[in-house]
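Can't attach files on this board, so I'm pasting raw text. These are the components:
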Amino acid sequence: MAFAFLLFALALPIDWNRQKAEILKIYRDLIQIDTRAGNETKAVDYIRRVLEAEGIPTKTFALDPARANLVARLKGNGTKRPLLILAHTDVVGVQAEKWPVAPFGAVIKDSYVWGRGSVDDKPVLAANVMVMLLLKRRGVALDRDVIFLAESGEEADTKNVGINFMVKEHYDEIDAEYSLTEGGGATLEDGKVVRMDIGTAEKVPARVRLVANGTSGHGSVPRLDNALIHLGGAVQKVGQWQTPMRLNDTTRTYFEKLATMSSPEKAARYNGLLNAGTAQASQEYLRKNEPQAYSMLRTSVVPTRFQAGVGDNVIPSEAEATLDIRALPDEDITKFYAEMQKVIDDPAVKIVPLPATRPASPATKLDTEMYRVLESVSKQMYPGVTVIPSMSTGASDKAQLRAKGQQSYGIGPAGKVEDRLNYGAHSDVERLAESSLYPFVEFVWKVVIGVAAR
Ligand SMILES: [Zn+2]
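---
Top answer:
Structure tokens for the assembled complex are below.
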């Protein structure tokens, strides 16, 4: 009888209304732990207590004791390869004077939860913790292991304490077919989720220094080989260079889907990209009006710094500029640099690649069980939503996982466009609508059940 009752209880769907208080508590607790770089172990200690209190064993791995990573694993029957759900524990810095509330208070005001990390990345961290607890409590039978990872140092990992350490030293602990983490999200319009972005690709940072050399001398004597003049010319050329446009699976689908939910005029422009005859005009429009979309079409070259000179009357023998180059996932970067050298067309200017910060990684596939589940859960929870695979112009820890062969997908809670712009990740002030938190946890739960439950 008791056994039959237990089985019945397990089969019951989760009452998400009754789950709210616990979700909010975990989320607020995590925000209240100040995890600016160097403090990640504090969050790991909290998560360890929460998981172990319910019988989920954890392991910690630390290159720096103050910046630990935590792994927990719920075993499946091994029919399928594991699913990794991960989130970073660290947050970026704060300027306290810009906040209307305490930045680590997790204050609830005007229906928002305010705090550093409230968007980046504690909703995902809290959702993952909650999902592990629910899987364990309900004794969900799994086809594949579900691995939880709380990683340090995503925002700034110059010492390689986070994902780089885990991939290099403990990859067997996080080896998985699929991974799910930040880097996507749902868009709210008039209170309704109209668009769900799933992060399936990202550009690869491939920065360089441009170094110009010339003869030094007195500022009163003009010289044709002045390094500044050569550098200035080179920066202008590469800054105006329209690098070749190339679509991949993700970006092609992105613009197709975007067209289906845009005004006829915009739709024509997005669809125009897919057609050789109209692509140039569409690109020109995006270049002027939608720079983010323009960047998704190509490897981008953006001058970000100049460095030269020691005095107003001194011609320096060397001048340099930094180019923030963001390559398409499949770019042959050596060939690209050679092409750029031709564009510069000046032997006085050399291209010096900076050390890579992320590995080159292929785009994640769209034709997978995971993508189908992400799509179907989105449509089930938000009828009428358009699901869009997207390529980030920035970089994330998915790069390291993709480079190891994982199919890695980015998700996130729903937000209004204005909130993303003014209160999003890394903004002066960060906040998340409380009403976005609960459905996000439900979304993660349903996706995990969809790909991992028997
Ligand atoms: Zn983040």
